Amino acid sequence: MIKILCLHIAKNQASYHYRVEQLLGYWNEYDIELHPVTIVGKKYGSKIKLALQSRHYDFVWLQRKTLSPFIVNIITNRTRLIYDFDDALYTRQTGHGGKLKDKHPGSQQTIKRMNHILKKSSLIFAGSKALARYAEIYNPGNVHLLPTALEKPGTSVPGNAIQNRITIGWIGSIGNLPYLELIDEAAAEMQKKFPGASFSVMSGKPPENLKTRWNFVPWSAETEHAWLQSIDIGIMPLIDDEWSRGKCAFKLLQYMSHQKPVIASAVGANMSTVQHGENGFLATTTAEWCRALEALISNRALRHRMGQESLHIFETRFERSIIQEKIASIVRSCICCSPGCNGKS
144 is in which domain, residue-wise? Predict the structure, then answer.
């Protein structure tokens, strides 16, 4: 049995839920014993104590958090370190103005700590190709592309049962609402051209100061599945900057797992998740967004065909069991490649 101590970010973060929590009930199937511990909010002495305890584990899995070099060195002197990250912590977050605090992505401290962690890690799990390319600079050969996984929902059904009523949906955090400004002209034009088309947003608050009329649905874990089922088309606009290029296209996976066609900005992981013309469309300009929206709004058969392809891509590349099996295989290989290893922990 391989033993792993997982030091993870706060439990209320989506990154924890999808990259740690949803995997917890299955590790025994892979002969892995994983012990999750929240590292956020712990005092420095408690972090050192956890680092010293790392000698009892085959791996310490550090999720996203950039610990101090001193603590990282304690860990790597006693066991193997896995670093798992799904955001471009090496650059300023889109929309973040003003002075950066030490803990913020893109700050000198965050970059320095992250680069040290990357150098000292035995394995690096990067959520997107852009993140993997960055990690390869500091630790070539030990970086593995691991998209954020998602459990397949129990049922996937068509969105709107009412003929000529089409719902275009966007789901995301409050901090990402400004991305909707990128498609405001196109969306507003579609609302004028297609009276039966509505736009729905599931988030912590409604978008503001837009031409498009958005129906606001407050996010909750209990209603997320039903909302994803109710929409007909899922969208993911993004600004083309370094932060966005590091994103993992997760909201596209949410739509695709519910058999929805998608439209997304041609940025970062979106470009490998959306097979243009197959499960949806990639768009950059307002004109391209208009064409993509009009094609799907006006053609039910196209929505159905692309939705089926979305589900197929999700099931073959991003479903939870596929990603978890890949993680387990990488971990086992690392154990076996260690000096003097006999294949057992």
Answer: 2-151+319-337
